[in-house]
Model the fold of this input.
Amino acid sequence: MEYVLLNNGVKMPLLGFGTWNLKGKECIDCVLTAIETGYRLIDTAQMYDNEREVGEAVSRSGTPRQQLFLTTKICFPQNSYAGAKTAIARSLEALRTEYIDLLLIHEPYREASDMYAAMFEAYQKGLVRALGVSNFNAAAFAGFCRSCPLIPAVNQVEAHIFFPQLSLQRQLSAEGTHMQAWSPLAAGRQQIFKNPILTGIGHKYGKSAAQVALRFLLQNGISAIPKSSRPQRMAENLDIFDFKLSKDDMASLAGLDTGRSLFGWY
Done:
């Protein structure tokens, strides 16, 4: 596994396991398999309603807590200072952990600054190791940074081969904020796994279309949290650190950018 050094010195794995839409026993089993496969970053959120399952899997895995990186997100209706404090306590209890590695505001709420104030207090107390936001576009991020006490370490947004948001990545990087991609494989849309450019480039390296799509993000300074319930696909997604796309490959792949969200976020 390779890591990125966040703006406060915390090391975060470049590739993690996403848990959106995983529930109950399936969530527990998938997170256990992901950890066994070698994933060390597990991403969840209060909105996903599976923090308890993630906490159960982490506990069952037997992997030392300090070797894992847990991300969660707080959201409406806890979009206030007091609500955020309650939400943080709830996540700590559900995840069975004494600290959260990365805590994000799930959406650019009007009350985001109030929520961040509570998050910053938790950060100062050692309950959270790094703070960030999610789904903040360029304007929302710039406005938020003008009033926050600590520049976000991460902005987790939609990013994939069809909408990599490279201009946003450059803006974030200039501020010292790392960009992380949710749905980095576009949730299988646009026939991404059969795309002829992705498969053609993958053939040169003995890699799949998915592996090429993930590698493109990493080489553009964007980490990712792909999700899969299939052990073979989990292992495949993780196996992207033994090759590097050429300059020409990167240029060809950049041509797949449609400039439009596939999920209606922007």
